[in-house]
Amino acid sequence: KQDIFEIRGACKHSGNCCRGVMLYDQGKAIDTISQWAQFKLENPNYFSFSPVIDSTKISQYNCSSLNCHNQCDRYNSRPKVCQNYPYSFFYQHGFIYESCGYIVHRNIAKFRLLFPSVKKAVHEFCPI
C-alpha cells in the first residue's frame, strides 16, 4: 500500500482525528468497557481519550487534549495512533476525511504494474 499510495497535504486543525474516532488494539475495535479498561492499563498514554457509550457498547472516543483552536495540548507526548496519523488511519480504513487537509494520491504507473487480482484488492481498499 505504501508503494501505491502517497499522502500529501498538511493538517488543517479540523479536530476530526481527535473527535468521534474508534480506537483499535491489534486490529480489533476496543468497543467494550472491559476492553477499554485493560487497554488503558497496558497503554497509559491514552489517558486523554474518553469513550462514548451507546447502550452497552463504546461507539467512539473523543480526546480531551484538543484545545479550542483544534490543536493538541500534549502534541509532544501524544499516543502512537496520533503520531502516525494520517497514515495509520488511511492504511486501516482506506480513506482520509477531506476536512483534515490530507489528500491520497495513487501512483498510476506502479498501479498499472500490479497483477489483476492485486489491482482489484487495491481498488476495493481505496477506489480512487
Structure at a glance:
With 128 residues, this protein is of the alpha+beta class.
Overall geometry: globular
- Rg over CA atoms: 17 Å
- Total of helices: 5
Q: State the helical fraction.
A: 25-40%
Total beta strand runs: 6
What does the model show?
The protein has 128 residues and is an alpha+beta fold. Helices cover 28% and strands 21% of the residues. It is built from 5 helices and 6 strands, in the order βββαββααβαα. It has helices at 33-42, 80-83, 87-93, 108-112, 116-125; strands at residues 5-9, 24-25, 28-29, 49-54, 57-63, 102-106. The chain has a two-stranded antiparallel ribbon with strand order 1-6. It has a two-stranded antiparallel ribbon with strand order 2-3. Strands 4-5 form a two-stranded antiparallel ribbon. It is globular, with a radius of gyration of 17 Å. The mean pLDDT is 92.
Jot down its keywords.
128 residues; alpha+beta; two-stranded antiparallel sheet; 5 helices
Topology:
Layout: E1 5-9, E2 24-25, E3 28-29, H1 33-42, E4 49-54, E5 57-63, H2 80-83, H3 87-93, E6 102-106, H4 108-112, H5 116-125
Antiparallel strand pairs: 1-6, 2-3, 4-5
